[in-house]
Write a structure and sequence with these properties.
The protein is built from 17 helices and 2 strands. By secondary structure, it is mostly helical. Strand 1 and strand 2 form a beta hairpin.
């Protein structure tokens, strides 16, 4: 089915939120903030900067709520905490969004709140890791809430046969936007090499501003629509949303294929998100690369990811999204093993690994989003996407918890990285049990031309 002029206009506006939030996802969440907050936490734990004395290694832990927490594991525990919080909050966000006739404005509200938290990260300095911890949790939560609404809007702006293409293009534009800001920050870090801390803080501020400004485009460019087939519940919007959520959790048993895919996605996307979160810390703390080198590797991921997302989208039009996702997960297994084997300070192999991640990263995530949209009942997209979003970008918890625990026990990031293979293996096994055609039919959706 050919998209109408209005649909094309809305799709173009929809793409821009990938461009907007990818600045935070890339510059802040994936590259700069994790190692920066780790360094701030280490300074707080040691009482001095770990860079002051070559060869000096602090063994003092942070004391958090009466527990000893390794400073090197702090970020991963924070992501775990934010995901547990997301599991409580995001389903309610989805239920509210499904009943709202102003989804674009709801998207903007969550995005602008998150961008404010991201911009305030500029204030994290010295040994003030507590402020950084609070801002990271709040920004991640707001990002997840905005993506619940954003993903649900995909169903409104694209027909079933168009969703793989539209989702992949949005992801590709996100890589371009995130990559451009990351490149600018790379230049800034190079120019301000004598004051890296300030350069990092300015970069964090730029990501928050970028996220806020470009969110204006989808908020203004996508029209509001009345709810479709809302479930009848008693009470006001919030009370009815809780009732709808409870009904959805019970009704999920009626869609066993959807449930199986959701659990599979929980595991394999958890692995993907943990690899992305851990990559900057792994590159700096384990492989011994400078911050600017790690940033260069992420630039490679970003720009290769543009082509990777578009390539996966085109292959899916011929082979079907399900098969392409499955193939991508086997490539992820190779990536994890490759990361474990990369020798310290071996730049060519590190960059080759970045190319491999770029090829497969956007494609698997973009197609997972569009494939899942085919498996959920019409009118309840935001609520179902809230369950999906609980294990989406920056809200994983099993992988980050495993990564943090293994690092704390082994005092090394290499076994922690290798442990993530388990998440991909479990995801593949569960995905093999998904019958795509049956799942789409169970949800009452029309079958696309290629399943």
């Amino acid at each position: 089915m050919t998209a109408t002029t209005e649909q094309v206009h809305e799709q173009k506006a929809w793409y821009w939120y990938d461009w907007a939030n990818s600045a935070f996802v890339t510059t802040t969440a994936a590259v700069l903030f994790a190692p920066y907050l780790t360094a701030v936490a280490e300074q707080a734990a040691c009482g001095r900067s770990t860079d002051e004395d070559a060869g000096y290694k602090c063994t003092t832990d942070l004391h958090v709520l009466g527990l000893d927490v390794s400073a090197g594991s702090l970020v991963f525990y924070l992501v775990t905490a934010s995901t547990i919080l997301s599991a409580l909050v995001l389903p309610i966000v989805g239920a509210v969004a499904d009943r709202s006739g102003r989804k674009p404005r709801l998207l903007g509200g969550f995005a602008w709140a998150g961008s404010l938290m991201a911009a305030l990260m500029f204030l994290v300095a010295g040994s003030n890791w507590q402020l950084g911890a609070v801002l990271l949790v709040l920004a991640t939560l707001c990002l997840g809430a905005s993506l619940v609404v954003y993903d649900a809007l995909l169903v409104e702006v694209a027909d079933p046969d168009d969703r793989d293409r539209v989702s992949s293009r949005g992801w590709a534009l996100g890589y371009l936007g995130g990559g451009l800001l990351l490149a600018a920050n790379f230049v800034l870090l190079t120019v301000m090499s004598d004051n890296t801390e300030l350069a990092v803080r300015i970069s964090l501020l730029s990501a928050g501003i970028w996220w806020a400004v470009f969110t204006i485009i989808p908020v203004r460019g996508i029209r509001s629509r009345p709810p479709v087939n809302p479930v009848t519940e008693q009470g006001g919007l919030v009370q009815a949303s809780f009732g709808q959520l409870w009904r959805t959790l019970k009704d999920l048993r009626r869609y066993p294929v959807t449930l199986t895919f959701l659990v599979a996605y929980l595991f394999y996307n958890d692995g993907i998100q943990t690899v992305i979160y851990a990559a900057s810390v792994y590159g700096e703390k384990e492989l011994g690369f400078e911050k600017s080198t790690v940033l260069l590797a992420f630039l490679v991921v970003q720009f290769v990811g543009i082509g990777g997302a578009l390539l996966f989208g085109r292959v899916a039009q011929v082979r079907g999204a399900y098969r392409v996702i499955l193939a991508g997960l086997f490539i992820w297994l190779v990536v994890v093993v490759g990361g474990w084997l990369v020798p310290n300070e071996n730049l060519p192999l590190f960059l080759l690994l970045a190319v491999a991640i770029g090829v497969v990263l956007g494609g698997t995530q973009a197609l997972s989003r569009s494939f899942y949209s085919q498996l959920i009942p019409r009118g309840r997209e935001a609520e179902y996407f809230s369950l999906y979003q609980a294990c989406e970008r920056g809200t994983s918890w099993i992988g980050t918890l495993v990564f943090g625990l293994v690092h704390q026990w082994a005092d090394s990031y290499r076994p922690a990285l290798l442990a993530l293979m388990l998440l991909f293996v479990v995801g593949i096994v569960l995905l093999l049990r998904v019958d795509a055609r049956r799942g789409i039919e169970e949800a009452g959706n029309p079958l696309p031309s290629v399943v």
